[in-house]
Structure formats: C-alpha cells, structure tokens
C-alpha cells in the first residue's frame, strides 16, 4: 500500500510506533544509507555510482538496492551513459526528493531541539 | 529509555544527512602536481593573446581560452564523480575569499606590468602568480575540508 506526498512521490506506508518522534519522519529516509545518499545528491549537481559507493563505504549491490528504493519513491533519477565497462551510472535528486530531504532534515533538527518529544 | 534511544537515532540520522551534504565539497581525490601550473599556463597564454594585432584572431584565441576553461571544469566534474552545488560549509568561505581576492590581485599586477613595464614580463608574472595562487588556495581548501570532516566526525 502506498500514499503520495504533496510533491506527488509515492511513499510506502510502514508501521511506526505511536508516540515515537520517529513517527514524524519520512520512512523512506529513516534508513541512514538512503539519507546519506540524499544528502550527497542534495548538495551536488549529480553524483556518479563510484562516488556514492566510496562515500558510503558500501558494496555495489547495497548501493544499487538503496538507490532503487529512492528511485521508486520518486526522490532520485538514475542516468546511464556509455556501454559495457565504460558505462557510467549517475544519480540526480528530483524536486520531490529535495523537498523530502529538506523536510526530513528540518524535522530531525526540530525534534532534537525540542528534546525529542513528539509534537514539540 | 525509549526517548533516549529515539534521541540517539535522531542524532545519528542528522549526522548522516549532514555528512552526506558536505561530501561533494570535501571528498575529492588528491590534486595532481600539474594542476596549479596548468592554471599558470592558461594565464600566461591568455596574457600573450593581448599582444596579437588582429582583433579577430585575438578574439578567437581568447574565446578558445574560455572554452578550454569550461572543458576543464567538465573534466574535473567527471574525474571527481560529483560537483558541489548550493551553500558550501562555512569553513570553506575563507579559501574562496582567498581565491577571488587573489585572482583580482594577480589581474591587477599583470595588467600594470603589461601596460607599464613589458608584456613579456607580464606573461611570466601571470604564470608565477597564478600558479602560486592556485597552490595556496588548494592547500587552504584542503585544511578547511579537513576541519569540516572533523566537525562532523
């Protein structure tokens, strides 16, 4: 089951514990590696697969899995150029992704400044 | 207990987000030895175009210099795998100011030498000063980038 946010991106529904500050956060971005990917992409015109993999210190398959989840949520677009061994995969944040990341980061800060209590 | 755990999780998440957001600015491969002299060579050859008599030839060569600079930026982007955008970490403001201010000083000195002393001396000065400026800038940038990484460690 999925819902759409204001930017029209599909967001998977995940059961979240009631009363927890984490319930206010975007479930797609609560995974640290996905959040880190979004952080890199929000601060760059685009980034290629190798840069993201090296920054996150993950395997190729792990990064592919995280990127796929972000692409499905509409937060990232994947661009492929070239063929065979010379091919390059580049990622770029979408408008919806940028909105979601900034909102998620602002929520984290607000929750931490508010002492981490729900609704503060 | 649960609220402490939540707080730790939130802090970790924010740290991941902030580390990601600075990575395009502070994660890059070592700068090759020829990087600064390449800028010096560009400044020298550009200075030398001012000696040319024909407007059309001079304009074409100067335009080629601009194209070369754009191509260099595209290559740097490909080499690094990313290119930063938006607001840089505050620690990088000083190196940026050094680069802009230094470029203006180099331009002023080279212009004065060109007009008042000798165009050839101006071309040599362009190479030396541009190379030194870029070397100094890269060192200051690397030190500032390290401070950014330490802040978010």
Fold blueprint:
The complex is a heterodimer of chains A (120) and B (153).
Chain A: E1 2-4, E2 10-12, H1 32-42, E3 44-48, H2 49-56, H3 60-72, E4 76-81, E5 88-93, H4 95-113
Chain B: H1 2-26, H2 35-49, H3 55-80, E1 82-84, H4 93-116, H5 119-151
Helix pairs in contact in B: 1-5, 2-5, 4-5
Structure notes:
The complex is a heterodimer of chains A (120) and B (153). With 120 residues, chain A is α+β, with helices and mostly antiparallel strands. In chain A, 42% of the residues lie in helices and 19% in strands. A three-stranded antiparallel beta sheet of chain A has the order 3-5-4. Chain A has a two-stranded antiparallel ribbon with strand order 1-2. Chain B is mainly α and 153 residues long. The mean pLDDT of chain B is 93. The chains are: A alpha+beta (120), B mainly alpha (153). Chains A and B meet through helix 1, strand 3, helix 2 and helix 4 of A and helix 1 and strand 1 of B.
Quick summary:
The complex is a heterodimer of chains A (120) and B (153). Helix content of chain A is 42%, strand content 19%. Chain A is α+β, with helices and mostly antiparallel strands.
What is the succession of H and E elements of chain A? EEHEHHEEH
Span of the ends, CA to CA of chain A = 29 Å
Q: Tell me, what's the shape of chain B?
A: elongated
String of helices and strands of chain B: HHHEHH
Mean pLDDT of chain B: 93
Number of strands of chain B: 1
Low-confidence stretches of chain A: 1-14, 116-120
Mean pLDDT of chain A: 82
- DSSP strand content of chain A: 15-25%
Largest sheet of chain B: none
CA(first)-CA(last) distance of chain B: 25 Å
State the strand order across the main sheet of chain A.
Answer: 3-5-4
Q: How large is the count of helical segments of chain A? A: 4
């Amino acid at each position: 089951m999925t819902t759409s946010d204001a930017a029209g991106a599909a967001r998977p529904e995940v059961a979240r514990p009631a009363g927890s500050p984490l319930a206010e956060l975007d479930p797609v971005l609560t995974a640290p590696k996905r959040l880190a990917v979004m952080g890199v992409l929000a601060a760059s015109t685009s980034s290629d697969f190798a840069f993201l993999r090296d920054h996150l210190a993950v395997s190729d398959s792990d990064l592919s899995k995280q990127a796929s989840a972000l692409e499905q949520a509409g937060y990232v677009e994947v661009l492929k150029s070239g063929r065979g061994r010379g091919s390059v995969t580049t990622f770029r944040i979408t408008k919806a992704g940028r909105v979601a990341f900034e909102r998620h980061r602002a929520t984290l800060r607000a929750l931490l400044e508010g002492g981490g209590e729900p609704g503060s | 207990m649960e609220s402490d755990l939540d707080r730790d999780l939130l802090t970790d998440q924010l740290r991941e987000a902030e580390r990601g957001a600075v990575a395009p600015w502070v994660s890059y491969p070592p700068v090759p030895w020829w990087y600064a002299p390449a800028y010096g060579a560009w400044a020298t050859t550009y200075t030398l175009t001012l000696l040319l008599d024909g407007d059309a030839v001079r304009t074409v060569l100067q335009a080629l210099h601009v194209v070369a600079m754009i191509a260099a930026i595209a290559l740097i982007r490909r080499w690094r795998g990313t290119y930063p955008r938006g607001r840089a970490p505050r620690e990088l403001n000083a190196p940026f100011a050094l680069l802009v201010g230094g470029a203006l000083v180099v331009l002023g000195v080279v212009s004065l030498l060109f007009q008042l002393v000798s165009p050839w001396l101006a071309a040599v000065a362009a190479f030396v000063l541009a190379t030194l400026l870029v070397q100094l800038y890269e060192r200051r940038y690397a030190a500032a980038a390290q401070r950014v990484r330490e802040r978010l460690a």
